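User: TFIIB-type domain-containing protein, Gossypium raimondii:
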Amino acid sequence: MADAFCSDCKRNTEVVFDHSAGDTVCSECGLVLESHSIDETSEWRTFANESGDNDPVRVGGPTNPLLADGGLSTVIAKPNGASGEFLSSSLGRWQNRGSNPDRGLILAFKTIATMSDRLGLVATIKDRANEIYKKVEDQKSSRGRNQDALLAACLYIACRQEDKPRTVKEICSVANGATKKEIGRAKEYIVKQLGLETGQSVEMGAIHAGDFMRRFCSNLGMNNQAVKAAQEAVQKSEEFDIRRSPISIAAAVIYIITQLSDDKKPLKGLILFPSYLLTKTKMFHVLLLGAEVLYRITQHGV
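Assistant: Predicted structure for TFIIB-type domain-containing protein:
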């Protein structure tokens, strides 16, 4: 889901797109923000065949400027009938053996799309990750590296650049076994390679505690009043010089707000955060940080 300004809620909220009606609807108040939108993407309906294989798409996908042929290459299909199946399978093998410079890119883009779907990311982030990977691949210097970690790092950087950051732990959960350390190394490698290509440092986008609030609050099942209070508190906390990680600040603010509201959550409930697995040490630090945030906010009359 994406964010948009809702005139009834008077702030940015998550919106849901109704594909059947073409309406963009606010997920909190139900206001239709935009109606009868035209979907310019390719038709995705599928029709089952008689062989029980994967459903074929009735029409082709949109052109992809990152591929040499725009993604419009010819594919030999499998017709019905025993003789036809034998002939098509032979031709298919030769087709697969033939040189296709985009085969690796296509597989990489499919992997990025799968990871994006599992994280619920918007198409702009997926497209940005594809662009980043294409730039790295064009330099022909990524051979021998962990491909899953490289693709996950591209997605992590894309989230940062599109101002929709995800933590490394969240990216790691869909990275097909790549570890946090491997993804971190791949990220540093990509940033270095892109910097060498452009001659400038790569803009990653700053991470703020507020970037994680809505998702974390949703994971904890907090009510709207508590979510609003947590968002206001974390915005106020950014005015102070609190030298802690944004994720820790978000966890501390949420815990303090839930304790001050009627919707109390136990500290161990923060383990629901997909990116913040609480140990005893982290629980202690969250308590201290929460006390610091609360003190600074109350000192300024909030």
